Amino acid sequence: xxxxxxxxxxxxxxxxxxxxxxxxxxxxxxxxxxxxxxxxxxxxxxxxxxxxxxxxxxxxxxxxxxxxxxxxxxxxxxxxxxxxxxxxxxxxxxxxxxxxxxxxxxxxxxxxxxxxxxxxxxxxxxxxxxxxxxxxxxxxxxxxxxxxxxxxxxxxxxxxxxxxxxxxxxxxxxxxxxxxxxxxxxxxxxxxxxxxxxxxxxxxxxxxxxxxxxxxxxxxxxxxxxxxxxxxxxxxxxxxxxxxxxxxxxxxxxxxxxxxxxxxxxxxxxxxxxxxxxxxxxxxxxxxxxxxxxxxxxxxxxxxxxxxxxxxxxxxxxxxxxxxxxxxxxxxxxxxxxxxxxxxxxxxxxxxxxxxxxxxxxxxxxxxxxxxxxxxxxxxxxxxxxxxxxxxxxxxxxxxxxxxxxxx
Length: 408
Description:
This protein is α+β, with helices and mostly antiparallel strands. The protein has helices spanning 44-54, 93-112, 128-143, 153-159, 180-193, 241-248, 323-333, 391-407; strands spanning 2-4, 7-9, 35-40, 61-64, 81-82, 116-117, 121-125, 149-151, 168-172, 176-178, 197-200, 203-209, 214-219, 225-235, 258-267, 277-280, 293-295, 301-303, 308-310, 342-352, 371-374, 381-385. The chain has eight helices and 22 strands. The strands form four sheets. Strands 1, 2, 3, 4, 11, 12, 13, 14, 21 and 22 form a ten-stranded mixed β-sheet that branches. Strands 15, 17, 18, 19 and 20 form a five-stranded antiparallel β-sheet that branches. Strands 8-9-7-16 form a four-stranded mixed β-sheet.
């Protein structure tokens, strides 16, 4: 059995979903498919895409999720930061979609009362070399119209007396945090209110390319099977996106998935408790942004993520062996931290397309951009690969881009 829009549907009766949950299928010369759009993966990005596509008159949209609820993987195991867009280079999709998505996300949170806070972010330099990195970030931010400014060390000490910055502090005033679970709950509800169908506990096993459209073979945890046909297929499967893409495209277009696990650490004392996000200066070539300090909407602080390359995208265990190195990095900018009160919390895995730098420097750093394409020779197949940070911030803009790829 499958849970679809609250209705238990026996295989293979996806065509018999309640009429109230469907809009009419679009008209094509071929026999009507079950759906106009099928989106695979109900993380923040998949939810945003499905919600956007469900707005189109005369179409039907199904969102498939292998787990029992939305956003159980990367979307709920991250820092919940609304990024400013200052790390990703002048021509990348990450920059374009982060800047657009940031504006859209703040606007949506205000209109729908989704909890978020523009708490600002500091990037710290402890020496002159790191100061040079901050100068580059500041100049790049100016070039793309994102506000950043340097604080005097005296002002920084006054505002956050527990934070140590020996050389420089660069402030990003448009960086913030969001309750990602509330955000995804809104997207899920709004998608279904627009007539969209959501199938939980539904694993995609294979996809056949038809003359027009695609046939998707699925199974449930109990072993039940169902086949679904669709005019368009959007691969937003996150950690499973590259394997799904490789099962559809010919071998010469296959990619290799990389999985970067990041451990997070909680803090059980009430002091120190900065009210600003604190990031170390980025390290050239590093696959992450350092073990930084973030917070949730209650003000409780946490630290992470680090980067640990793993082969298993399901390995969400927090690696205790990495705690000591993380504590050393944390104490470099928060010296009064009580090391004994920093505890293992949770881990998340970022889907990457390489082991290169998280920051674009333009010097052969291996920086990997988002891969969002309408695949040549596969009409109606949209591939989204390597959707890591700033995917959450960019999610609404990514949805608009997918809509453009399909309909403009």
